[in-house]
């Protein structure tokens, strides 16, 4: 066995047997998005779910923009609701991967916008193993609050004009009797039993929240554009001042030179 395999064996020898969870439950309050330099996330702020056959699927593309390999891990506030593949992995420099997030059958569609995802990453050695079990063990030893862990938070949303027709037989409807329910953020209303007639107020609220999410994304992009424009304005002003100083200096030199020549000519005539 070569030295690389031996190193991997030593690294994981004292760790407990892997459980290989597809998704781990995240802490209730995700950290705000950090503009790090290891991963580029697309979309940057909101996962929008869409119909794909009989499934509701969202996708996230992550790209390693660092000069070294990066290990990533996906967490969610509702691991029982979603299937995430791949939830962990290793990306060499400049490599990309598309993460598929699928709503599990039997879950309620109209509660998607309550959930969040957290993309974490950390720099690793280029020769690290990409074995899922070994990566699961590696992430068990890493704290999400560690300063070396980069975090990107994503919200969930449906398209503004999402059509739920044909999905009731697979996913829970927003209709029915209200019963008490609890998620990671405390007590919230859930819906069970009864008929399948949608509740208009809930749909309007979901559409409003989705619209707000899209507006937030647009606002973030505009803020980034304004910052870039401010930088360009400052650079332009500095260049203009430097150019003005150079022109004034050249003019002074020319005037001084012409004056010297004029004086020399007059003295020659005398």
TrEMBL record:
<dbReference type="GO" id="GO:0012505">
    <property type="term" value="C:endomembrane system"/>
</dbReference>
<dbReference type="InterPro" id="IPR000535">
    <property type="entry name" value="MSP_dom"/>
</dbReference>
<protein>
    <recommendedName>
        <fullName>MSP domain-containing protein</fullName>
    </recommendedName>
</protein>
<feature type="domain" description="MSP">
    <location>
        <begin position="38"/>
        <end position="157"/>
    </location>
</feature>
<dbReference type="InterPro" id="IPR008962">
    <property type="entry name" value="PapD-like_sf"/>
</dbReference>
<keyword id="KW-1133">Transmembrane helix</keyword>
<keyword id="KW-0472">Membrane</keyword>
<keyword id="KW-0812">Transmembrane</keyword>
<dbReference type="Pfam" id="PF00635">
    <property type="entry name" value="Motile_Sperm"/>
</dbReference>
<dbReference type="GO" id="GO:0140284">
    <property type="term" value="C:endoplasmic reticulum-endosome membrane contact site"/>
</dbReference>
<feature type="transmembrane region" description="Helical">
    <location>
        <begin position="232"/>
        <end position="251"/>
    </location>
</feature>
<dbReference type="InterPro" id="IPR053012">
    <property type="entry name" value="ER-organelle_contact"/>
</dbReference>
<dbReference type="InterPro" id="IPR013783">
    <property type="entry name" value="Ig-like_fold"/>
</dbReference>
């Amino acid at each position: 066995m070569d030295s690389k395999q031996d190193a991997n064996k030593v690294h994981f020898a004292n760790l407990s047997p892997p459980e290989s969870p597809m998704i781990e439950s995240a802490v209730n309050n995700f950290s705000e998005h950090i503009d790090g330099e290891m991963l580029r996330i697309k979309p940057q702020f909101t996962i929008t779910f869409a119909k794909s056959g009989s499934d509701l699927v969202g996708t996230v593309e992550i790209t390693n923009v660092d000069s070294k390999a990066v290990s990533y891990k996906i967490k969610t506030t509702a691991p029982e609701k979603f299937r995430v593949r791949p939830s962990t992995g290793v990306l060499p420099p400049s490599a990309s991967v598309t993460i598929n997030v699928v709503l599990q059958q039997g879950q309620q569609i109209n509660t998607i916008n309550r959930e969040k995802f957290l993309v974490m990453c950390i720099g690793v050695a280029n020769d690290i193993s990409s074995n899922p079990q070994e990566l699961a063990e590696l992430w068990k030893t890493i704290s999400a609050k560690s300063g070396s862990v980069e975090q990107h938070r994503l919200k969930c949303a449906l398209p503004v004009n999402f059509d739920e027709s044909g999905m009731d037989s697979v996913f829970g409807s927003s209709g029915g009797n209200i019963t008490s329910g609890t998620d990671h953020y405390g007590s919230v209303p859930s819906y069970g039993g009864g008929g399948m007639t949608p509740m208009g107020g809930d749909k309007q609220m979901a559409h409003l929240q989705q619209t707000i999410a899209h507006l937030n994304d647009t606002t973030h992009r505009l803020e980034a554009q304004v910052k870039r424009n401010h930088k360009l304005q400052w650079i332009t002003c500095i260049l203009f001042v430097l150019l003005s100083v150079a022109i004034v200096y050249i003019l002074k030199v020319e005037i001084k030179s012409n004056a010297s020549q004029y004086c020399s000519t007059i003295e020659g005539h005398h």
